[in-house]
Design a protein that fits this description.
This protein is α+β, with helices and mostly antiparallel strands. The chain contains seven helices and ten strands. The chain starts with 7 loop residues before the first strand and ends in a 12-residue tail after the last helix.
């Protein structure tokens, strides 16, 4: 199906611009307004609360001080205009003039390890950098929707491309580590208690020397490029159309025994 980038409506319930196209449409958008933030934080709360990972909150929102920091971005994923998933991405950039960029939430438990691995992976003449994935959650009616899960990871990957980082890091529950391994991540540290949550997470990382391999072996990462239309739309705060992955069925078949994360830390 073909659409014009100008052919958009504003969804009254969410305040998010969306394409007027009908069908199986998956889009991602950076959170840029209080209304969008409430959608993301509410989805987080519902997902984490369902599993008992956070206590009851009267406002029904799960947010923290990191959400307001300039090195943090939150993404919403929509299926046919309906909020379906969210993920948070932090930029760790020790060479940035603003010291806020020198710290991410996972450094509350893995600071020494994160600083060491980014320093080891940095390119000559740079301080090194990484993005950290976290606060992954799906809406209740998308709890088994693998496409929106992979779309969230794909959208987060574009932020990594945008900043040309040396590593992608994630604090991962042990139960979900096999899935991340299949996506090219390596286990860097075994699980430890995670602040503010009722579970433990280990540290995993995907590094620059494996990016090309991952793009050829992980279908939902295929074809991503800095400067492509999806990247441009996403970073401009516009709805970014994400492809329905042609090889999804084969990947799902290979991953069938694995537990796909409903929520993730950081």
């Amino acid at each position: 199906m073909v659409y014009s980038p100008l052919d958009t409506d504003v969804e009254p319930r969410t305040g998010v611009k969306r394409l007027r196209e009908t069908g199986n449409i998956i889009e991602a958008q950076l959170v840029t307004s209080p209304q969008q933030a409430r959608l993301a934080y509410g989805m987080r709360y519902d997902a984490y609360r369902e599993y008992g990972f956070v206590g009851e909150r009267p406002d029904g929102l799960f947010s923290d001080e990191y959400d307001t920091r300039p090195n943090y971005s939150t993404i919403l994923v929509f299926r046919n205009g309906t909020p379906a998933a969210t993920i948070r991405v932090a930029l760790f950039d020790p060479g940035h003039p603003d010291p806020v960029f020198h710290r991410t939430q996972a450094m509350e438990i893995f600071e020494v390890e994160i600083r060491a691995v980014v320093a080891a992976e940095r390119r000559p003449g740079t301080a090194g950098s990484a993005i950290e994935l976290g606060k992954l959650a799906r809406a209740a009616d998308a709890a088994n929707d693998v496409e929106v899960l992979f779309a969230a990871f794909r959208a987060a990957g574009y932020i990594g491309l945008h900043h040309d980082v040396d590593a992608v890091l994630n604090a991962v529950r042990a139960h979900h580590m096999p899935m991340y391994r299949r996506c090219g991540f390596r286990v860097l540290e075994r699980p430890r208690p995670y602040p503010g949550l009722t579970f433990q997470t280990g540290l995993m990382g995907l590094f620059r020397d494996q990016y090309a391999v991952a793009q050829h072996t992980v279908p939902f990462m295929a074809g991503m490029a800095a400067g492509d239309p999806t990247h441009q739309a996403l970073m401009a705060g516009e709805p970014a159309r994400l492809s329905v992955f042609s090889a999804l069925e084969s990947l799902a078949a290979r991953a069938a025994p694995l537990a796909m994360p409903a929520v993730a830390a950081s």
